[in-house]
């Protein structure tokens, strides 16, 4: 597998986070993201959107024609998510950082 372009990945990540914040600010009628107001981001909706987006990009990858090939790719993605969460938690533990505050809101 060729080496990934980390600068490109960083730029993409920054752009996606910015878009999520901007849309979230617009939906709650906040004057602007980053102005000190509390920004409410729907974590469940963001995760659902990212899952859909990932599926849309992966759908065109050659070699994902059978359910077993898709399952193999899903296992690779799941492993990267598990490792990423572990890495983030390790980094937070080393730096004393905390995750963004979250509140679970569910309808009755």
TrEMBL record:
The protein's name in its UniProt record: Uncharacterized protein
Domain of life: Bacteria
Region listing for Disordered, in residue ranges: 89-108
């Amino acid at each position: 597998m060729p080496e990934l372009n980390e600068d490109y990945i960083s730029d993409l990540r920054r752009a996606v986070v910015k878009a999520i914040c901007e849309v979230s600010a617009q939906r709650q009628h906040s004057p602007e993201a980053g102005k000190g107001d509390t920004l409410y981001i729907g974590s469940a909706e963001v995760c659902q959107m990212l899952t859909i987006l990932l599926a849309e990009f992966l759908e065109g990858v050659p070699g994902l024609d059978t359910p077993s090939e898709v399952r193999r790719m899903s296992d690779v993605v799941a492993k990267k998510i598990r490792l990423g969460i572990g890495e983030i938690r390790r980094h937070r533990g080393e730096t004393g950082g905390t995750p963004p505050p979250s509140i679970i809101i569910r309808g009755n």
